[in-house]
Design goal:
- The protein contains four helices and no strands.
- The protein is mostly helical and about 160 residues long.
- The protein is elongated, with a radius of gyration of 27 Å.
Length: about 160
């Protein structure tokens, strides 16, 4: 049974490292959003996607271990949480699991705050872009009606983009 505990702790530590990297990327995304740097934002998003894929792979490795532990401890898989496992583990393993659990809680709390802030920054950027598009399109668009056979005054300046490419 100690082998299962060791495997679980290794996988949890690897997952924790991924979460820490995601936290770092979220911090960088905040700075990138403030600086309005779309290329860097794209790179960070790709890095984030790769880390999420890695976390998914680790989760697939963790599931069978959790099933084995649940069966060995005589509890249902739905009842298996880190805090539950701490109760069944020896003192050293329990201490490691508690430390990992605390780190997960800290990281997820900060990630939640950063993601909410990044969401607000993205919304502000979109609102600014939409405002500018509206301002540009309103100044260029005038009345589209004119006497029959004549071009209206807004006909020429109505387009934002030049069609002569």
């Amino acid at each position: 049974m100690t082998v299962m505990w060791e495997k679980l702790i290794v996988i949890l530590n690897q997952t924790l490292q991924i979460y820490q990297a995601l936290l770092q990327i979220s911090r960088q995304k905040r700075e990138t959003l403030i600086a309005a740097d779309p290329q860097t934002l794209d790179q960070l998003t790709k890095q984030e996607e790769m880390l999420i894929i890695e976390a998914g792979k680790l989760e697939k490795q963790r599931q069978p271990i959790m099933q084995e532990l649940a069966a060995a401890l005589g509890i249902t898989l739905n009842d298996v949480t880190l805090s539950t496992l701490v109760q069944y583990a020896d003192d050293e393993t329990a201490a490691e699991l508690e430390e990992i659990s605390e780190e997960f809680l800290d990281i997820t709390a900060e990630l939640t705050q950063l993601n909410e802030l990044n969401e607000k920054l993205i919304k502000q950027s979109l609102e600014y872009i939409n405002y500018n598009i509206n301002v540009l399109s309103q100044t260029a668009a005038e009345s589209t009606y004119a006497p029959q056979g004549q071009d209206g005054p807004g006909k020429i300046g109505r387009f934002i983009l030049d069609k002569k490419v």
